Amino acid sequence: MRVPRKCNERCYINRVLPVLMKKHAIQITKFDYRLANKLDTDLQKLRCRVNYHALKFADHILKMGEKLVQRMRSSSKHYIALHLRFEPDMLAFSGCYYGGGDKERTELGKIRRRWKTLHNGNPEKARRQGRCPLTPEEVGLMLRALGYGKDVHIYVASGEVYGGEETLAPLKALFPNFYSKDTIASKEELEPFSSFSSRMAALDFIVCDESDVFVTNNNGNMAKILAGRRRYFGHKPTIRPNAKKLNHVFLNRNNMTIGEFSSRVHIFQRGFMGKPKEVRPGRGEFHENPSTCICEDSEAEKKIDWGRRKIGKGSVTKKKDGDDMKNDTETVHDENIDYEPEMTDPEDEDDEDSPPGKVEVLSNGTSIDYDTFMSEDTELDELLSD
């Protein structure tokens, strides 16, 4: 059964509980934004157990997702996963402009008319405020500036990208080892999932969650949930672009050297790299910042020596007395950070025929040597001048 949108305690006891006891599974949709972040400690702990240990994807989804992860690992020991939201409806909903001229304005304007309540905003103001998802090229430039070399393998989870291959070409030039579920799985393997957008998204979710570094160009629900899971399971690196600050860097990249560009990206990304204490307890939504689940683990932060993990060259210097001195890649508390506004999904579709039940919990191995995963590439200098 589906749980009614307006269901109080009596409703749950009289209508939901009997079905749960009989069927052992129910489907609950579109309710997460109604959940309170502040609950009693015992209830919050229960919420953590459910969110990160009890729920899992159905077996056939989990099996296929694990197969995709194995194929990525077989091509490279480490890989980046990018959740790329750049679909036409997303861009139209955001009200942003990406330089496509009258053609882009006409096409996206037509889509915007689907939402009667949307007003015509100022695209330049939206970009200055960090409301525009980064383009594929901008994501690639950000990653290269952070020290990820051309040899890095990247898995891209996305829907229909506006502009198609022409839009993706700059990202593929920056990272030629470019993969998606469509390139590492056959049509026959994906056929049981392809008719259901949520099942296809679940496959991407699994591959993204198992990646060594997760990157997103948006602040939507999937990105937030993955960020929360990766915090919970050992603060695995999760890079969220500081779009508000990076906008100025991208606009002026032709007027600065590669060193200046890289330095500014490093500075503006402090606090957006998935490190411990980036977000204070109580800040952010629960599924993005499960602080009540992890704050009691006093050993969690000790397990990861973030100061010694380099991002490109020169991220750790030495004092004269031999003590390490961390530079601008170290953790910064969120009171010094401009947080991005929420980027919601314009069309949060449900799959009517999706079976109720399972949302997955994956393994939590996180120890890797990131120094071997990152390299400096002088070709970025040429790419920045394009």
Could you explain the architecture of this structure?
The chain has helices spanning 9-23, 41-54, 59-75, 88-94, 101-112, 123-128, 136-145, 164-174, 181-184, 187-194, 197-209, 221-232, 243-251, 258-268, 291-294, 379-384; strands spanning 80-84, 154-158, 178-179, 213-216, 238-239, 316-318, 324-326. Mean pLDDT is 77; it is low at 297-386. The protein has 386 residues and is of the alpha/beta class. The chain is 41% helix and 6% strand. The termini are far apart. The radius of gyration is 21 Å and the shape is globular. It contains 16 helices and 7 strands. It has one domain (31-86, 133-384). The chain has a 5-stranded parallel beta sheet.
Features:
386 residues, alpha/beta, two-stranded antiparallel sheet, 16 helices, 7 strands, disordered C terminus
Structural class: alpha/beta
User: Which stretches of 5+ consecutive residues score pLDDT under 50?
Assistant: 297-386
List how many beta strands DSSP finds: 7
Q: Could you give a short account of the major beta sheet?
A: 5 strands, parallel
Q: What is the straight-line distance between the termini? A: 55 Å
Percent of residues in helices? 40-55%
Question: Outline, from the CA principal axes?
Answer: globular
- The gyration radius over C-alpha positions equals 21 Å
Spatial ordering of strands, largest sheet: 3-2-1-4-5
Domain count: the total is 1
* Secondary structure tally, helices: 16
Q: Roughly what is the average pLDDT, rounded to an integer? A: 77
Q: What series of H and E elements makes up the topology? A: HHHEHHHHEHEHHHEHEHHHEEH
Residues in β-strands, percent: 5-15%
